[in-house]
Amino acid sequence: MKKNIILFAMFCALLTGMTAYAQVKEDNSQDWIEKFYFIKTGNLWFNSLRFDFPDITNTRISTDTMPVYNAWGQSMDLSFSDLPEYITARIIPSTLKPKEEGKIILTFDPVKKGVYGPVYENLWLYTTDTNQAQKRLIINPNIAEDFSVLTEQQLADAPHIKFDQEAYIFDTITSGSNVVYDFVFTNEGKSDLIIRNVKAGCGCTATNPEKTLLKPGENSKIGIVFNTSGRTGHQLKSVTVIANDPKKPVTMLNIEGFVKP
User: Fold this and answer.
1) Mean pLDDT over all residues of the chain?
2) 53 — alpha (psi -120 to 50), left (phi > 0) or beta?
3) So what's the architecture of 34-143 in CATH?
4) Would 34-143 and 150-260 be classified into the same CATH topology?
5) pTM here?
6) Residues 8-40: pLDDT tens digits?
7) What is the pLDDT of residues 220-241, one digit of tens each?
8) What percent of the chain is modeled with pLDDT above 70?
9) Pair 256, 168: CB distance under 8 Å
10) How many Å apart are CA 141 and CA 244, to the nearest integer?
């Protein structure tokens, strides 16, 4: 009997605590809103301006959701215009009442986009906000090739990319000079190697390979140019190479050295 009384008392205390917590949240709801929606673009507040589409592959349509909040004292209309064919959007609701939360649901179709690797694009959200009508949003998926569809035999016979070296260290040079280097690679696999994408980081340019489809045993090269104008000190630049190699779909090529004034 005593045990039951203790358990009942503990349950009542827990229930009271939950009620108190709910009351605190209710009392501080505006504080919570301001902390959660910490990105304020005019009267429309965001928790993030970026759609990441995590774990997206080239075969799977992906969806990401962005919460929004109308901090205005009047209703606000939201809409998109001229979205590319690989993006569809839903805004729920499309008209936000004062102090109302909503969400933007964006769907990305990598098949229609037709690229591999990181994508970075701007989208413009149009609103009736008199403070700032247009809001710049970002889509930033990293599209990976889906190798799960390959059979064991296809994996065994897959291509394999092999670079002579993946890093080039240059001697100290004067700012304004160009660093030029060719990264040579070979297909050491058993089927055709396809270079899906070559993407240079800031300050670098990368030429497309002489051949983007290599038979087993063939080689090619990717030319890199690093312009050091306006740069001094230690430098580290990278180039991302994406290929249809299941064991090594992404290769990071690095150029490193010191630039003096």
Assistant:
1) 89
2) left
3) Sandwich (2.60)
4) yes
5) 0.77
6) 443 443 343 434 334 434 445 778 999 999 999
7) 999 999 988 999 999 999 999 9
8) 89
9) yes
10) 18
Alpha-carbon distances of 103 from 44, 89, 124, 261, rounded to whole Å: 12, 10, 15, 50
For tokens 């008199």, the residue is 130
Q: What is the pLDDT of residues 54-78, one digit of tens each?
A: 889 999 999 999 999 999 999 999 9
Backbone angles phi and psi of 217, in degrees to 5 = 90, -15
Q: Where are the domains of the chain?
A: 34-143, 150-260
The number of beta carbons lying within 10 Å of the beta carbon of residue 230 is 9
State how far the Cα of 26 lies from the Cα of 20, in Å rounded to an integer.
10
**What is the DSSP secondary-structure string of 17-73?**
HHHHHHHHHHHTHHHHHHHHS-EEETTEEES-SEE--TT-BTTS-EEEEEEEEE-SS
Structure tokens at 13: 């205390």
Chain length of the chain? 261
Other C-beta atoms within 10 Å of 52: how many?
Answer: 14
Q: Which CATH number fits domain 150-260: 3.50.50.60, 2.160.10.10, 2.60.40.10, 3.40.30.10?
A: 2.60.40.10
